[in-house]
Recover the amino acids of this structure.
């Protein structure tokens, strides 16, 4: 049996955790009081708020997606102890991010050197997707943290810890089951290769049923949760969630395109290309020596484990998952960074300079949007979104509190749930899917049903050469729900309204459009009703 990996020596984990949390907290200070953003607003915060108010693990006020409840329970506990505020939520998530980074450091230190561990942890911290997700109340950061800790335990062949951390990962997010199943599959492949007499690249010299059981065990708590959800709701995944994330994705052409997008997200997205290209170039160099010894690589069996996890995540998330969000890959992106930095450390004399350039590129990516479409949650563009919606929601709250407002998700939730921090009281909403031409033509036909429009950019969509390639545009519409939002002026013209408030920030916008004729007609109806009630009152008094 392979000898268990030794514990890495160095700073105490508690000290490293405190240092990482302090770094995250100070760098996120300007963001801690931001109102909730996108999926936070649409699902995770309402689900956690339901748990806080009712004690129900299954959401009551929003349609449940059957996501496991660990993160929502964690947030509800923090709110119970410290109060229901955005700052408490974001600080609690920063603790999760620090725990994840500690896992990155420990894993990197175990398989490589101290220098590589420090550089990997710092680069992961400032990588735009990781940094932006660090304070957002999503499930992926917790799933990534537990997965990395489980991987560290697996490499040491510590089976109980492996089972525990992978189980917690799956209770944070169901897709975390990908990792233990991928490792189990790789072990079976290794056994088959050994049986064929081929050279082994296995992490362990022999199979062990206890290790296999540790990798299989996480399915138990996950299935228990699904069973509980079924008993409570009569379904596991709601119909729309299943259609969007599974049924609509099972097309060979879509899978192929999604695979290419996922590969891009792990090798090039948000300036990661600078690091992966540098590592690829470094492979042509001779390994450096420290004294008489050549600098060691990450052990080949460990590299195979990392590679299997990365490829499995890419493959599975190319088949399922309607949204091509980079945060779904958070469990494996630190592994890509670790492999690349280890290569630079081993082969480049000025590897620290290269890592410094990569770090600058990552910081640049935090503040400057890329020239291609991306999710605003992948850098500080989400801050622009929140500030825009604070402005627009506050305007309709002040001027149209008792009137009907046409808008799209997630603004429809922002102005109907005051506890999200956007409005003072629930408003009446007429919902549309987006602000495309077809949706606004439909809105025109029912314009008597609302008095104002809260319109906003539903995606970041820079207009460049690639945006107007007809084939690519048709593929995006067919497979990824692509649409173009009309500009505020065009929306106002279509619904016979006028823009009364508008603001733009770095490619995103929001506008409030008033429909004077509808407001006047409603006012006239209200006046007639009041006059009728007054006449009836006078008649009765006589």
């Amino acid at each position: 049996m392979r000898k268990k990996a030794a514990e890495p020596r160095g700073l105490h984990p508690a000290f490293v955790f405190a240092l990482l949390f302090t770094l995250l907290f100070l760098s996120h200070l300007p963001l801690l009081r931001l109102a909730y953003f996108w999926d936070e607003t649409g699902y995770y915060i309402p689900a956690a708020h339901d748990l806080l108010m009712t004690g129900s693990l299954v959401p009551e006020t929003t349609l449940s997606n059957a996501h496991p409840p660990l993160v929502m329970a964690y947030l509800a506990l923090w709110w119970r102890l410290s109060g229901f505020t955005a700052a408490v939520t974001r600080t609690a998530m920063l603790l999760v991010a620090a725990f994840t980074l500690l896992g990155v450091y420990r894993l990197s230190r175990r398989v490589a050197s101290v220098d590589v561990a420090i550089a990997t942890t710092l680069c992961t911290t400032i990588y735009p997707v990781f940094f932006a997700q660090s304070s957002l109340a999503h499930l992926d950061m917790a799933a990534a943290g537990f997965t990395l800790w489980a991987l560290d335990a697996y490499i040491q062949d510590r089976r109980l810890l492996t089972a525990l951390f992978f189980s917690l990962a799956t209770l944070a997010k169901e897709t975390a089951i990908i990792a233990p199943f991928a490792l189990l599959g790789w072990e079976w492949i290794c056994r088959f290769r050994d049986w064929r007499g081929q050279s082994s690249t296995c992490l362990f010299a022999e199979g062990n049923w206890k290790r296999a059981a540790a990798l299989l065990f996480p399915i138990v708590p996950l299935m228990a949760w699904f069973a509980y959800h079924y008993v409570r709701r009569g379904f596991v995944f709601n119909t729309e969630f299943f259609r969007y994330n599974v049924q609509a994705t099972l097309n060979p052409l879509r899978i192929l395109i999604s695979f290419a997008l996922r590969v891009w997200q792990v090798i090039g997205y948000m300036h990661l290309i600078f690091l992966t290209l540098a590592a690829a170039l470094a492979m042509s160099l001779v390994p450096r020596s420290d004294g008489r010894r050549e600098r060691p690589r990450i052990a080949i069996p460990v590299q195979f484990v990392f590679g299997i996890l990365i490829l499995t995540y890419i493959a599975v998330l190319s088949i399922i998952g309607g949204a091509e969000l980079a945060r779904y890959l958070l469990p494996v992106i630190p592994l890509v960074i670790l492999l690349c930095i280890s290569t630079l450390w081993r082969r480049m004399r000025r590897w620290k300079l290269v890592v410094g350039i990569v770090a600058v590129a990552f910081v640049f990516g935090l503040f400057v949007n890329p020239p291609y479409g991306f999710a605003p949650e992948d850098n500080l563009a989400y801050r622009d979104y929140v500030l825009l919606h604070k402005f627009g929601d506050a305007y309709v709250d002040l001027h149209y509190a008792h009137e009907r407002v046409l808008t799209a998700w997630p603004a429809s939730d922002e102005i109907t749930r005051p506890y999200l921090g956007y409005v003072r009281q629930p408003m009446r909403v007429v919902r549309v899917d987006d602000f495309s031409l077809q949706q606004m033509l439909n809105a025109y036909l029912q314009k008597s049903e609302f008095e104002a429009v809260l319109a906003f950019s539903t995606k970041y969509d820079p207009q460049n050469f690639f945006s107007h390639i007809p084939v690519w545009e048709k593929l995006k519409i067919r497979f990824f729900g692509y649409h173009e939002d009309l500009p505020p002026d065009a929306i106002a013209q279509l619904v016979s309204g006028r823009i009364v408030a508008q603001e733009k920030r770095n490619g995103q916008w929001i506008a409030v459009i008033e429909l004077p004729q509808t407001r006047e007609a409603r006012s006239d109806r209200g006046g007639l009703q009041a006059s009728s009630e007054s006449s009836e009152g006078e008649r009765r008094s006589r």
